[in-house]
């Protein structure tokens, strides 16, 4: 049986979905570890026109592409609508998510149960590296906005683009 579940033949493919505004070292930790378990990992950026973002979807994809290049079996894409519809359309049977703390669990469990109920897509939770348990894109943006050092929390390229974007906005 494949790690993606369902017992189907072919490539074992998982998705790491999210906003990635911007990608952090916490995301990269999960993506990198998922890439060791699956033949292909698709990092899918949610296109959400109702949510204001610091980076455009294209900019987020660009940064993700650059920082995941070394993994070889990671592909970046975007999606809108339901994640399970994206999974169905792309032959993906598993969603991989990082759990940072118990506080993540309630909502993540609800989503996992909903996604399984809708389309039998499994969700695999990976415990986040404790080094990144406090880390989120929102906190990174807030700290950087007020001049805090986030260089250990995001890849160097993201740190550069974050600094430049915040300078433009000042
Ligand atoms: O990085 P985020 O914003 O916490 O990621 C949330 C995301 C994209 C994983 C979640 O909002 C999602 O899957 N959205 C797609 C819409 C959908 O399928 N909603 C039903 C979830 S049960």
Describe the model:
This protein has 170 residues and is of the alpha/beta class. Helices cover 43% and strands 18% of the residues. It has six helices and five strands, in the order βαβαβαβαβαα. It has helices at residues 25-37, 57-68, 83-89, 102-119, 137-145, 156-169; strands spanning 13-18, 40-46, 74-79, 94-99, 122-127. A five-stranded parallel beta sheet has the order 3-2-1-4-5, sandwiched between helices. β1, α1 (25-37) and β2 (40-46) form a beta-alpha-beta unit. The longest helix has 18 residues, at 102-119.
Give me the count of strands.
5
| Main sheet attributes: strand count, strand direction, barrel closure | 5 strands, parallel
Number of helices: 6
Low-confidence stretches: 1-7
Instruction: Give the strand order of the largest sheet, numbering strands 1, 2, ... along the chain.
Output: 3-2-1-4-5
SSE series: EHEHEHEHEHH
Helix proportion? 40-55%
